[in-house]
């Protein structure tokens, strides 16, 4: 009895160590939103130029994921995680240089470096979290880890807004004083200095926990080349389907989030209404400025509830996935999200604002469930499949411009038809998974699937 208990404690400790990574990369990723607004004012950029900050981040997923998968396969998870954390710490030093030299190109380089490290973490940590325990609990564990990732994405914009945006104005005709500019650059410097320290502490933590995590990690598969992994992926129908699903999910989620404030600020939604201020927690966070209707700044604060909904939904999903079949839950969540988008598109009005914010609640389980359903059904290696799924996070760089083109030609309300289409396609993926048997099925998984 002693040995299994000790082994179980070792696996739990390894899972806790891996879950800290989910929080860290969620926090770092969500700093992009306030950073885009800050660099627009600091460096006097156009909207397109400022959005290059987000592009530099998401493009890393497309360029680095397969090399990262080969690296993880060659080095094993723990050394790859240590290397990724080291890369991210160096990228933070580049961000410090960007802040002190006031050079936007260094900001882009630093963000690409951070995202490259995060990509390696994603490739290593997602299957690791799914594997650290009994097979039937893989959906539960990955969703639990993603809940902590959502907590990081929830608090990141708050911290970034405090550090980056004090006194910064980006409206046309507004100029930033040298004092405000220096303060904003100092905020960027302080933020990435402390992040660098956090990453060094995580490196130390993983170095001390390396034997525990390595012992609990799944057995290594053969180490393929990047070309071999790409060929492996294209030989697996489910690896391709899963990649397409991740592309659609990330693209829809990011597209809704990036346009949410502008949507809520519309006169047809909340722009002429004080109804949101009557909702206790929402009204408190938004902070009524005393003027009728919801201003753009107040609407931007409300967007926190879109991302917070994903955090709450993942906590609830963790419980649901312990009781219900993952593919069935994914069918339900994608259908509800599509219906909510259709409501916004077809009905509009004040109620559409509340419905749109609630979509985050149903986005919650999609990434971890798509990931684990694909890993189970893919005939490609785990490294190749994980690399494909992480590569397809680049959907966050392609679908938002499409939504922007639709909203520019019509309205922010009409643009919800694009994510609605994404969710309907994701529902088809979930239905296909429901009818398909896992390729990596074990006896313990048969009781669940």
Automatic annotation (TrEMBL):
Subcellular compartments: Cell inner membrane
All copies of domain Major facilitator superfamily (MFS) profile, residue ranges: 14-438
UniProt GO molecular function: transmembrane transporter activity
Principal location listed in the UniProt entry: membrane
Name of the protein in question: MFS transporter
Classification via InterPro entries: MFS, MFS_dom, MFS_trans_sf, MFS_TsgA-like
Record keywords, A-Z: Cell membrane, Membrane, Transmembrane, Transmembrane helix
Transmembrane annotation, as ranges: 12-32, 52-73, 80-101, 107-130, 151-171, 191-208, 238-264, 304-322, 329-348, 354-375, 387-406, 412-434
One Gene Ontology CC term in the entry: plasma membrane
UniProt membrane topology term: Multi-pass membrane protein
């Amino acid at each position: 009895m002693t040995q299994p208990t000790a082994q179980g404690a070792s696996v739990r400790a390894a899972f806790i160590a891996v879950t800290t990574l989910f929080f860290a990369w969620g926090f770092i990723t969500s700093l992009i939103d306030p950073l885009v607004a800050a660099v627009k004012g600091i460096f006097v950029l156009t909207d397109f130029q400022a959005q290059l900050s987000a592009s530099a981040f998401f493009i890393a997923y497309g360029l680095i994921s397969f090399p990262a998968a080969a690296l993880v396969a060659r080095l094993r998870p723990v050394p790859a995680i240590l290397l990724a954390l080291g890369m991210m710490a160096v990228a933070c030093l580049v961000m410090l240089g960007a802040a002190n030299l006031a050079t936007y190109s260094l900001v882009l380089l630093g963000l690409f470096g951070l995202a490259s490290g995060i990509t390696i973490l994603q490739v290593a940590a997602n299957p690791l979290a799914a594997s650290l325990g009994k097979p039937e609990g893989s959906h539960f564990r990955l969703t639990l880890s993603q809940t902590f990732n959502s907590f990081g994405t929830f608090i990141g914009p708050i911290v970034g807004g405090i550090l980056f945006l004090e006194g910064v104005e980006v409206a046309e005709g507004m100029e930033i004083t040298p004092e405000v500019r220096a303060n904003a650059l100092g905020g960027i410097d302080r933020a990435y200095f402390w992040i660098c320290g956090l990453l060094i502490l995580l490196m130390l933590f993983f170095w001390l926990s390396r034997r525990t995590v390595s012992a609990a990690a799944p057995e290594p598969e053969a180490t393929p080349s990047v070309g071999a992994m790409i060929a492996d992926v294209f030989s697996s129908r489910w690896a391709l389907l899963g990649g397409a699903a991740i592309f659609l999910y990330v693209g829809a989620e990011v597209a809704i989030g990036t346009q949410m404030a502008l949507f809520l600020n519309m006169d047809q939604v909340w722009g002429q209404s004080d109804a949101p201020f009557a909702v206790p927690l929402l009204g408190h966070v938004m902070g009524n400025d005393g003027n009728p209707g919801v201003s753009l700044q107040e609407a931007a604060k409300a967007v926190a509830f879109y991302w917070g909904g994903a955090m709450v939904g993942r906590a609830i999903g963790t419980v649901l996935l312990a009781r219900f079949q993952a593919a069935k839950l994914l069918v339900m969540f994608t259908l509800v999200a599509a219906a909510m988008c259709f409501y916004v598109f077809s009905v509009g009005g004040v109620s559409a604002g509340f419905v749109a914010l609630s979509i985050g609640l149903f986005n919650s389980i999609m990434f971890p469930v798509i990931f684990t359903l694909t890993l189970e059904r893919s005939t490609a290696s785990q490294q190749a499949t994980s690399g494909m799924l992480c590569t397809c996070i680049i959907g966050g760089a392609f679908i938002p411009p499409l939504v922007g083109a639709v909203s520019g030609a019509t309205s922010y309300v009409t643009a919800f038809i694009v994510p609605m289409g994404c969710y309907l396609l994701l529902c088809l993926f979930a239905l296909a998974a429901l009818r398909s048997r896992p390729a990596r099925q074990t006896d313990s998984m048969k009781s669940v699937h």
